[in-house]
Design brief:
Blueprint (H helix, E strand, L loop, with lengths): L1 H14 L4 E2 L5 E2 L4 E2 H19 L5 H18 L1 H7 L1 E3 L2 E3 L11 H7 L4 E7 L10 E7 L2 E8 L8 H10 L15 E5 L4 E4 L10 E2 L21 H6 L2 H10 L2 E6 L6 E6 L3 H17 L15 H13 L13 E5 L2 H12 L8 E4 L5 H9 L4 E5 L4
Parallel strand pairs: 1-6, 8-9, 14-16, 15-16
Antiparallel strand pairs: 2-3, 4-5, 6-7, 7-8, 9-10, 10-11, 12-13
Helix pairs in contact: 3-4, 9-10, 10-11
């Protein structure tokens, strides 16, 4: 039965991935948050700050704080709230503790205070009390992932889950509004599809599959369901934290003719995550100086794969905490791809330092200076060499 599929996934997340299991009584429908875990996390990590801001002095103060948080999530997105926190009165309130570097015990203790939780059959609607989402994953009380599950034994599959998102799980509800959740998964026992912006019948779902014999779908799994990599690998705390810190992104796109700005929320597809992880793991093991060939089909997200790889390589350190690369140079011989790459890479957070783009307005001397000055990431065309 479908609820057996749901039980299996939630049980694994709780028993093996050490999630907490939440309930509908913890969920505040007005703000679309797990209020119980949100305030527990804030007390565990920023108790003095909470007292100084007097957030819980009375219901009025608490409402002001939650109103502000809800507006910031709507405006900036839950990704940015997790990454940067929120300025409230004279303080910055953090909603996530980053993964520690090796040997940093204080940072490890802080990271361990993050609360990953899962709630099944979440009754999310104020107006339609019987509507329930199969699975919702929260980080410190903030919803980040939703899932609709279908079991093919019951004659339904991921297509039915996608239709459910398009018809029942619409942005009319706060939880499903753009940027309030990072990704929505339609899952059956054979395949997984994902969407980062629900727009009713215009919602665009992409495969989150491993691929099978150079084709679509997933390979046979001798140890379980074909799709169990989602909860056994992707949704582990280390992997999900890595995705939150290094991959997910809200990018801005500007129409050159009208000046209109639009926003896109990005979550890595499985093959993108796989290639970056494999490259970084091999470089960490073998060091610099090796060649790799990555083949991508058209429309499979080359620019993002290159950008993620460049950022990870630029911040990679060896066992002595020394940078493996002084600079990462992205070279292309296609002008269109070059422009797209520049926009993609420049749109990412510059936590590792400057990104130099040697475009048509610059010359070979600018490229030479960027290399000599140790720019962390340099994007250039082949012609500039």
């Amino acid at each position: 039965k479908e609820n057996g599929f749901e039980t299996m996934i939630v049980k694994y997340l709780v028993e093996n991935n050490h999630y907490e299991e939440g309930g509908n009584s913890d969920y505040n429908k007005i703000y679309a948050i797990d209020e119980v875990r949100l305030f527990r996390f804030l007390h565990d990590t920023q108790d003095e700050k909470l007292a100084e801001l007097r957030i819980e002095d009375n219901e009025i103060e608490k409402k002001k704080f939650l109103d502000r948080l809800s507006k910031k999530i709507s405006d900036d997105g839950v990704i940015n709230i997790i990454r940067k926190g929120m300025k409230y009165k004279n303080k910055t309130v953090d909603f996530y503790m980053v993964r520690p570097s090796e040997g940093n015990q204080d940072a490890k203790e802080s990271y361990d205070k993050n609360i990953f939780s899962v709630t099944r059959q979440l009754r999310y609607s104020n107006d339609y009390g019987r509507l329930a989402l199969d699975v919702c994953i929260f980080l410190n009380g903030l919803p980040i992932i939703t899932m609709e599950l279908k079991n093919q034994i019951t004659k339904q599959n991921h297509d039915d889950a996608i239709r459910q998102y398009m018809t029942d799980r619409t942005p009319d509800e706060l939880l499903f509004q753009f940027k309030r959740c990072i990704v929505h998964f339609a899952v059956d026992d054979d395949e997984i599809y994902m969407c980062t912006e629900l727009k009713k019948e215009k919602s665009f779902f992409m495969p989150f599959n491993k691929g099978n014999n150079n084709g679509a779908g997933n390979p046979r799994n001798p140890n379980g369901l074909k799709t169990d990599y989602l909860w056994k690998d992707i949704l582990t705390k280390p992997c999900l934290s890595n995705i939150l810190e290094n991959y997910v992104q809200i990018t801005e796109e500007k129409d050159e003719d009208t000046g209109h700005k639009s926003y896109k929320q990005i979550f890595p597809r499985y093959h993108q995550l796989d290639v970056v992880r494999k490259l970084i793991a091999d470089v960490r093991e073998e060091g610099s100086g090796h060649n790799y060939l990555i083949q991508h089909s058209a429309g499979s997200g080359k620019s993002n794969s290159i950008a993620w790889t460049a950022y990870r390589l630029a911040s990679l350190h060896d066992s002595k905490d020394m940078s493996v690369f002084s600079s990462v140079i992205v070279v292309t011989d296609r002008t269109v791809l070059d422009e797209q790459l520049q926009e993609t890479i420049s749109g990412f957070d510059h936590t590792i330092g400057a990104v130099e783009t040697i475009d048509d307005k610059k010359n070979s001397k600018n490229l030479k200076d960027a290399i000599n000055n140790g720019a962390r990431i340099i994007v250039t065309s082949l012609q500039k060499f």
